[in-house]
Amino acid sequence: MNKRIAIFPGSFDPITKGHENILLRALPLFDEVIIAIGKNSNKQNYFPLELREKWIRHVFKNEPKVRIETYSGLTIDFCKKMDAAYILRGLRTSADFEFEKAIAQNNKVMAPEIETVFILPVSELSAINSTIVRDIVRFGGNASPFVPEGVDLKF
Ligand code: ADP
Predict the structure, then answer these.
(1) pLDDT (tens digit, 9 = 90+) per residue, 118-140?
(2) What is the DSSP letter of 53?
(3) Can the peptide bond before residue 64 be classed as cis, meaning omega within 30 degrees of 0?
(4) Cα-flanking dihedrals φ and ψ of residue 52, to 5°?
């Protein structure tokens, strides 16, 4: 049987407890989940790529099914390159839903063999997002309650 490989794409700027929750709950569904740090989003990234990658490696160091890659270009092209038939995304809000729906449906037209799989975060994590974490850090606050154990945002 083909390995069930999923791509979890995002900017992870930085990784939060929300990302961690989605990924850990998705793991039993797949043989491998590739966290794919996108390099070409329109967003201006705050934390350097090397740090974002280092934090993710640290968080999942004991998860043999997790692999970490960086990519640019279309997510569906990266899926094909990695032999991944699934894209994993988290849905926090109805705004996420509308945005994700458009992307997933357009991806389906371009790559019918790839399925997008959505997971809802547990309720206490649905208010966490990387933008808020960045703002807290930028203004000198303590963002550690929002990021996984061992992610030291002071660098
Ligand atoms: P992108 O720029 O692609 O949205 P992010 O790193 O912000 O990248 O998010 C990557 C994925 O993680 C998205 O599917 C997003 O919805 C999901 N995500 C982010 N924060 C949370 C959270 N608190 N709960 C659930 N999913 C989340």
Answers:
(1) 999 999 999 999 999 999 999 99
(2) H
(3) no
(4) -60, -40
Task: Return the DSSP state at 11.
Answer: -
Instruction: Enter the DSSP assignment of 101.
Output: H
Which residues have C-beta atoms less than 6 Å from ligand 1? Answer: 9-12, 16, 18-19, 22, 41, 89-90, 92, 96, 121, 125-126, 128-130
Task: Convert the pLDDT of each residue in 21-70 to its tens digit.
Answer: 999 999 999 999 999 999 976 668 999 999 999 999 999 999 999 999 99
Q: How far apart are CA 144 and CA 141, in angstroms?
A: 9
For atom 3 of ligand 1, the residue with the nearest CA is 10
In the β-sheet with 115-119, what is the strand arrangement from edge to edge? 66-71, 32-38, 5-10, 86-90, 115-119
By annotation, the residues acting in catalysis are 19, 43, 92, 130
Coil, strand or helix: which one is 125?
helix
Which residues 6+ apart lie within 8 Å of 59 measured at CB? 15, 20, 148, 149, 150, 151
Q: Report all structural domains of the chain as residue ranges with CATH numbers, in order of start.
A: 5-146 (3.40.50.620)
Q: What is the DSSP letter of 35?
A: E
- The Cα–Cα gap between 6 and 115 comes to 9
